[in-house]
Each structure stands twice: as C-alpha cells, then as structure tokens.
Amino acid sequence: MSATTPTYAFAYLDEQTKRMIRRAILKAITIPGYQVPFASREMPMPYGWGTGGVQVTASIIGPNDVLKVIDQGADDTTNAVSIRAFFERTAGVATTTRTTEATIVQTRHRVPETPLAEGQTIVFQVPIPEPLRFLEPRETETRVMHALEEYGLMHVKLYEDIARHGHIATTYAYPVKVEGRYVMDPSPIPKFDNPKMHRSPALQLFGAGREKRIYAVPPYTEVVSLDFEDHPFRIQSFDRPCALCGADDVYLDEVVTDDRGGRMFVCSDTDHCEDRRAKGFTGEQVHQEAAE
Amino acid sequence: MTHSEAVATEGGFADPVFDSQAVFAAIMDAFARPGKIVDLGARATAPAPMPAAAAAFIATLADFDTPIWLDEGLGQVPGLVPWISFHTGAPLAGKPDAARFAVLSDARELLDLGRFALGTPEYPDRSATIIAVLEGLDGGERLVLSGPGIEHEAFMEPRGLPSGFLAAVARNNALFPLGVDILLVAGAKALALARTTRIRSA
Amino acid sequence: MYIAVKGGEAAIRNAHRLLDDRRRSDRSVPALTLDQIVGQMALAVDRVMAEGSLYDQELAAMALRQARGDMIEAIFLLRAYRTTLPRFAAARPLDTFRMRIERRISAVYKDIPGGQLLGPTFDYTHRLIEPAMADDPPVDEPMRRLSEAENCPRVTDILGAEGLIEADGQAGSDGEPGDLTRDTLDFPISRDVRLQALARGDEGFLLALGYSTQRGYGRTHPFVGEIRIGLVDVEVELPEVGFPVGIGRIRVTECQMVNQFKGSAKEPPQFTRGYGLVFGQSERKAMAMSLVDRALRADEFDEERTAPAQDEEFVISHSDNVQATGFVEHLKLPHYVDFQAELDLVRRMRREQERPREETESVQEAAE
Question: Quick check: B20 and A37 CB within 8 A?
C-alpha cells in the first residue's frame, strides 16, 4: 500500500477557510456582541478544547506576531502548552509567557491581570457562546430573542437566584450587555474579570468551534454586567493577598496543602505573579520562611 | 489572448498566504479602530483606476462565496472584471443588494447605502461591506468620529466625500444592528467606518 | 515551600511516549499491518470511513491502529485530515441501480427481479464464539456464480412505477447538495444537509433514536423496502470534457425504508420514504439512518413533532460523535478558576445562613 504523507498549511488552516473566518471576524467587530455564524472546521484537537479560539488565532496570526496562550490564567497548564506547541509547529511564530510582550493572547477562562494595551488582541475560547442557552436550548428561539432584544428571561433568571439564594448565583460566564444592545456570554471567565472587558484598549475576539460562532468586542466598547439596582454587580473579593507575591487585587487559586484543612491562596495569573516577585514583592509564605 | 485576459493573470499577491495575512491584519485593525488610517501596501495591482488598497482588500477577502458589485465607472474598466474573477473566483453581483462587497469609484454612490444588503434582524452580519475610492484620506474637511473602537473621539479628513455623506451615515447608524460597513480607500491607504461609527463636522 | 507545578511540556511528552508504548504493546508480537486491518477488521474500517466522512481504507486502517482500536478517536483522526483536503468537484449522484450487488434483500416482497441475495451477513449465524477463532484454520473459498445480466430494479422503483410510493427527493434549486462542513448550519435545514449529518452521525446515537421510533416515540410504520450493499461507480462531471468521468468505485450500503402511507381527498394514498446511505458495509447504520430520516420529515407530512427522533435541532445538534466526545471529555480539563468562583459563593451563602442562627443563640445565652 502506498504511504500517505499529509502536509499542512501555515497555521494549519487553508486559505479558503481563513478568508471565511476573516469575513466573520470583520462583521463580528462591526456588530459588537453579536454572534456571527461561521462554517467551523474540524481541527486536529477535540471540540471543547479550544477549536474556536484556535481557528480565530490561526486566521489572524502572522509571522511577526508574538503569541501567549493561557488556561486558567497559567501558561503551563497542559492544554495551554498543547495549543502553544500547535502554533509553534504549524506557524513557527514566537511565543511568550509575558502578557506585555504578546501581540495575541489566546485564553481559556481568564483575562490577564496586567491590563491589555492598544494593539493587542485577546482571543477567548468559548464553549457555549449563547448566553440564553440554559434558559432556552433552541438556537431557533434564542436567535429571535436577540433580534427582538428580548432579554427579559435573563433578568427573571438572575432575579430568581436572588429570591432563592440571596445572591445572583452566577459566578462565571456572567452575562454582559455590549454597547447597550446585545447580551453576550463573556466565556467562562470568573465574573472577577468582567470589568476588564469594559472599554478595554485591546481587541477582544471570541471563538466557539463546536457551536460555530465568532463574536467580538472592539476596543473602548461598553461591556456592562447585568444587574439590578438593589443587587448591583459585584466581583469576587478575597480576604487575603497572594501568598507568593502579596497582590491583593487579583484572582486567586486555592491550593490544598494537606489533608488537615491547610489552604493557601496564590495568583491564578502565573505571569503576573512571577513579574511581581521579580520586582521584589513578597507574600506571607516568604515572610514565614524568613521568620523560620 | 485578448489584452484584458493577459493582464488579468497579473497583479495578484506574490505570496498569497503572507500577503493576505498582512492585509487582513491591517483591515482588522482599521475596523477595530474606525478612522485610523492603515496601509495595505502595494501587494496587489488591479487595472487602473482600481487603487492598490481596494485590490488588496478584494484579493484578501473575496472568493466564489462573495458576489461583488462594481459601480458603473469600475464596471467599464477594461480587464477589471477578469482580474477579479481570475484572482478571487468571485462572481459579479447582478444587483447591489446581492453583493457582499461593493466597490464604488464615484463617492456620490455613498449617498444611497440602502440599496445594499443591510442584513436581517436575525442575521445582521449578512450585510455588505462598501469599499469607496476617494481622492485622498487627508486634506479634506475635518470630521469627528465616535463609537466602538474609539476611546473618546477620532478625526478624519478624507477628500472627495459628497455633501450629504454625514446624513447618509446617520441613516445607516440608525439601522443598527443592521447596516453596511464602509472602507474608504485612496492609493494603498484605507480607513474604516463601522455601522456603529458616528460622524459629525468638527 | 509551595512551587507551582511546572513542566507541562515534559509531562505531555512523556504521556505520549507511554501511549506509544501501550499501543505497540509486546514488541515480540508482530505489529498489525494495514492489510490485516483493512482485510480482517473491515467493518471497523468501514465505520471509521463512514463517520469520518472520508472513503480511504488505508487511512482509516492507519487511524484505527494509531487509536488503539478506539473507533471515535479513529473517526476523529480521519475527520481532522479530511478537513485539510482541497475540494475539486461534487460527484454526480451515485446510481445505486447500477450497483455491483453483494447483498440485496427486501422484506416487502417474497421474491423480486434479480432475487434476494444474502451475501456476507451475520444474519442466521448462531452467536457462539467459534473455538477456531483462537487459531487460523483454513477457510473455504466462497461459492461463486457468474453474475446474471439480469436487471436488479430497486424495490422503490417497482412501487414507484405503480405510483404507490412518493417520488424520490428533489435536489436543491441549483442541483448542488449542501455541505455542512463548508457552510454554516442554520435550522431548519434542508433534507440533503440532514442526510449528510445522519450519514456522518454516530451509529449508536442513530440506532437508539431509530429504535425509539419503533417503540412509539415518533412511529413511522417502517418496512424494509430494500437493503443493498455493493460497489458503485463515482463519477464527476468535468466541464472541459463534457461527459461524466469515473474516478473510482466505492462500497456502500443503501437502505430504502417504506413507511406510513399518506394521502388526502385530492391525492391518492402513497407510501412515504426514509433513506439511508452509508460508506462500506453497515446495515445497522443505514437502517437506523432511514428510520431517523423519515421521523425528521414529520413537518412534510403534517405529523405532530412530539418525539426526540422528530426534533431536527435536537437530533442534528447531537448526532456528531466527534463533537459530542470533545465536549463531554473537555470536562476533564482544568476548571479550577470557575470552581473557585463557585466555592467562594457557596461558602459565602453558608456563612450567611449560619450567622442568623449564631445571633439567635447568643441572644438566648445572654438572657439565661
């Protein structure tokens, strides 16, 4: 039998596919928060593992770009490593773990703590792009609800949470309204990160491969988390700073240190934490060790 | 082989993968920051008077899925239709509202944007992108832009916009989320006006 | 001292090295050859080609070997390769009338022109594990007969000649079939795209849905008009040549299900159709597909859509096993950032519930 030796294009996608995705990206930018359907391709990684983000990145990336990939805020989580290696292999681009050095940041579940700057593009991996999906599973219905700006159901859901739990029970993928028009899923970032999207100088692109949707928030665009006058939107707060770098304005990971209830809290954004420590900031763990 | 067939095969991207990536990156930047002038380079050369920026846009984003509308002036340019067909495979649109892209050499055509596909309430993305050829992107009347992509205000001074343009844009704004998106081009330069971009006199 | 876990790259590399080791297993046992897989695991190869949407036995065998026999993983490998291939043309519709038939049965007539032909079937085998399968004893050559030049009309054509069954479906206005791998999917979708989705769909999912229609969840009164398995020519129309050119021959399984008749005061009653066509030999899949195709046509026949198998958006959105496995399995990826957000909320709510109780208790203590 003859051997078949597959060869692959720059950044994996063929030019026809890139054109189709690029057209979708432009319309996504001009209609902020609206989900543009696109003919998502099958990627060499599983659906649900970032195929949408990867297709968006593959369609915008060029040889001069510097790519950062994070998952849960960390550059060294396995799926981030895998996606970074994919672009190193298929596009040969430079990669970095430093938020400030990156021209493109592809992310799953976090927005970096270091504020993004003009000229940067952040690409979110999105599992379920439809913010109304868990209220109404049918695409045919939710599409009409968006067309009619019929978002009452969402407010009812949030209000039912308050009635039942005393809180809005959504802690991540917290819905936002973009430029006063479309209700949008910010991807499953903790609501802590929602305010970073508001009037960000960076271009924010969202790719959902399995669900075949691309959407965008242009720079300096209004992104407002849904709330009520008597229950205003509030982000998570932590009652202690990062044990490593002492930062008290960041999102923290809880690390279980033993089976006797031992816990420590450290920055979820590994680059931000390393950067602070390099600048001499220290947290309680370092203080304890110095005391010992 | 006729003359126009001979030139049709020339003037495409020297390196389709990287040229189209570079052009797209600039176009994306333009639409993300309305009013910002970007340089699409001299990468594609279509029969004159089609400017380099319009040729680059078409070569980057058009294909057999995107019918193109040319205004009367461009429709009569020898060799332009074969050039588009050879380099992109895009068909000509039979009427304006069937076009995904429209290239206008006469800026007065911008006054009637409602002729083009505006999208539908369910699919506002199914709308045209208009590429309008101007004399220049600087030296004209100073206009103030605001909207998504713009921190506070941006300014532009394109030359050759028809009077009544601001009213036409305001009508397009009012259709949001429907409406067309516009790219103004001159030479290799381009600037974008999204359907959300509001414009007023300085 | 807590140090964040590093070395993701090394961990991945080592995991893949172990995977290779397990795949090859005992090195003293000869490796499987592609010929062995294509020849002796032919139905596995067929399923990978069918749901991988790419007819290439050799690649399917490579995928199966690489996937250690995991069907969905092999299907996924083939799909990811398929998506990189350029499209040259759309083939002309396969002419199954001219199929070189290996198996052909009808349940609606005792005998039919061309005859009932059992072919290579598991039907009527007794499902006893053969001791011979532990070894490689000689196998008899099959019985052969010269193919008769006899006509093998399709049963649906026989019924159609009498006007007893609805006509075959019509192609779209431009005659080009839709392609869900190249176009966006907007519900409701046309039957050609639906059939494409079903042909690629997960055999187990379609089997369960087809079964559910038989148990009353969207009943369609099915009869197997005909199942035929065999080789058909694939032809492409080349504008430069002016006539169709054969580019190869593939094995397919076709199932024509004859269903519940419909009629009205104006139109005389006719049976309706459900259609299944699958790469390779896969009767189960073709039959399940034809049941689900018919169930999904509920609107065409003014049938009330009440059952899962009749719900187009539900069926088509969940029939693809590559999508399904990806999203189900993605739950094993780290989600600790979101979980932290949930932990924080649950702890906060528990504290708020505790507080009023403690307050009441302390008031009581003060009173005592």
Answer: no
